[in-house]
Amino acid sequence: MRKYITGLRLYKRILAYKLEEMSSWVRYSKFARDRNYLNADERYKNYSAEDQYANIGAGSYFYHPKWTSFDFYNNGEASFMRNFRPIDLTTVKKLPGTFRLAYCSHVFEHIPRDSISSFVRMISASLDDNGCLRVAVPDADLIYDAYSRRDMNFFAIYKSKIPDGLSVDWHLEFLLLDMIATEKRRQPLNEAYIESIRSMHSKLSKEEFLDYLLEGVESNRADGMNHVNWFNFEKIKALLLANGFGAVRLSAFGRSYHPPMQEVPLFDGWLPRISVYVEADK
Residue 23 to residues 138, 165, 230, 266: CA-CA distances in angstroms? Predict the structure, then answer.
């Protein structure tokens, strides 16, 4: 009997996986979200019926009937996710529409340093006069402090990326590079480079060290999956104030000033333990 139950559970898991694989962009997940918590209009009662909302760099799974999702994916989401708009966020000058709220989670770190200012100006230009942008990014202060403490537990969420055969003594540097300059950990590591990272960490300031890790990283891959920039609150604040925003405040997980963006885990659900949250008013 126990074997039968175990086999049935395994069959159900395989069937669920295959159904999800065959359905266009997780249909069940979309409808489950709608049924369970997306129909609560209470969060939007103080907003106009004409107000629009944008998730910029939303990925391929985000769905909310009131929000338009923008990302570079062009693999069929738009055919099913009626609010999905495939778009190249690194080249577009203004989003199609004017938005009251914009949300941008774990996107800034994927934008190259020479493009990030124009990216922020594009968002600012796409907001109305009362608009607000909420940003979440990996917090470089937390990353730097954890590396300084040699704290492998902080980086544990990414340990599965460590390739077989890599010296255990190099694991921390591998994961540090993954969070700051991903392309460099994709290349074969050697002892001289590991020692250089350690030496520069002891000699440079935090900001100088993080910039050192990014030396030579000028662009992202075609799939946009590399981290090619770093941010902490002070760097984001300066960037936002210099590119179209008038007020910037430090926020926290689930604590947006705006009720629509307080809906966790729909918002702020990605890697909260390593993230810094910032809100900026137009």
Answer: 31, 37, 36, 21
